Amino acid sequence: MLRWLIPLIIIAVIEFYSFQAIRTVSKSKAVLIFYIVITLVVLGYIIYQFTQFDRGVGQTQQSLFTMGLFLLFMVPKILISVMLFGEDIFRFFKGVIVYFVGDNNEGKFMPTRRRFVSQIALGIATIPFASLLYGMTIGKYNFKVIKQTLFFPDLPESFDGTTITQISDIHSGSFDNPEKIQYAIDLINEQNSDMVLFTGDIVNTHAKEMHPWIETFKKIHNPVLGKYSILGNHDYGEYSDWDSEKDKEDNFEAIKDLHRQIDFKLLLNENIKIQKENDSIRLVGVENWGKHFKKAGDLKLASQGLLKEDFKILMSHDPSHWDAEVQHDENNYHLTLSGHTHGFQFGIEIPGWLKWSPVQYVYKQWAGLYENKGRYVYVNRGFGFHAYPGRVGIMPEITVITLKNKGLTV
Q1: pTM score
Q2: CB count, 10 Å around CB of 152?
Q3: Are 164 and 400 in contact (CB under 8 A)?
Q4: What is the model's pLDDT at position 2?
Q5: Residues with Cβ < 8 Å from 23, sequence gap 6 or more?
Q6: pLDDT, averaged across the chain
Q7: What is the pLDDT of residues 65-81, one digit of tens each?
Q8: Phi and psi dihedrals of 354, rounded to 5?
Q9: CB–CB of 318/311 below 8 Å?
Q10: Nearest to 41 by CA among 30, 52, 33, 31
């Protein structure tokens, strides 16, 4: 019970300030009673659902909805509380000054709360409310095709102009709209790329989450250079309680087999040769390696038999791997494809002007293209969603990368 005490105190403070804003703006008893009833019902539902969460079952549509409702309900109120708390600081110091100089606060130590401050707070609170609601209803399936052209001086000539479609972080257990997922598959196929690469997290936890979607994802066309995939941190069953270690291992084996069922070749700390005419490149796939998560990836094992001069594309789910090891590795991995961050599913992106998300304070490379001494990492913003059932500002992504030989470019 003690672990719930601090969150409950914080919620109580937030609700106190939110009620103060409503009471300052409206003197209608009906409005105040309606607000109190709605608040009690929603909070009661959220608290009950949180207490019913079962780690053995993992994330469900119910837990997704509850988290979305919690954010929709609390984030606007947090902003209101911050503004009114700031006003209280002002009121306190004004009260101190008046106390020593003279009483012009109608006999009260602190001046009366100002109505316009509460009106502004309530107005500002509508912005995150509307944004989160949009993210839950439209944003989570607002797929964007993002194209990049990368130039390399040592790209084999036969691969000049080769296109790669990358998807990442499917999180199939979160889906609730077959039509939208089919639309995304159609978008993937419309790119008509030479290769399709999937960089991990096919489920949230359990292999069965993907079963309703196998036939849909099998419709991804089989391109001339093939379809390949790797594992992500969610594919190991680390975020669930299991009845036995065998159950966990069986689930892991079933997750690996999902890749076969959707016609992707799963690379497990290994590399393969991709041949085109008389030239070849190497595709390297490592298991998950994360600074903050499971370290099953073995770059040395995955790179056995490679030469430094080979042109290499590395698939590694977590971009912290590139930051920690890959970008400085003497093997010279030309292009690394990652995902994992989802761009936090929340942020602001205005191309050429602004790119911000809270996740950037945890990951140096969190969305889009990054370069160091001619070596690149591209971090896909993710196909699906997790925890919060929506996306605000950071949309689900299908990436298309065109490889170009710098010497052949006029």
Answers
A1: 0.93
A2: 19
A3: yes
A4: 65
A5: 32
A6: 93
A7: 999 999 999 999 999 99
A8: -145, 140
A9: no
A10: 33
Nearest-CA neighbor of 255 among 295, 315, 198? 198
Q: How many residues does the chain have?
A: 410
Tell me, which fold does domain 139-408 have in CATH?
Purple Acid Phosphatase; chain A, domain 2 (3.60.21)
Query: Is the per-residue pLDDT at 107 higher than 60?
Result: no
Q: What is the pLDDT of residues 292-324, one digit of tens each?
A: 999 999 999 999 999 999 999 999 999 999 999
Give the tens place of pLDDT for each residue, 178-187: 999 999 999 9
Q: What whole-number distance in Å separates Cα of residue 152 and Cα of residue 13?
A: 56
Give the integer Cα–Cα distance in Å for 15 and 77: 7
Task: Delimit the CATH 3.60.21 region(s) of the chain.
Answer: 139-408
Q: What is the pLDDT of residue 185?
A: 98
Residue 329 near residue 286, CB atoms below 8 Å = no
| Cβ atoms of residues 218 and 33 within 8 Å | no
Six-digit token string for 52: 């019913």
Structure tokens at 108: 């009260």
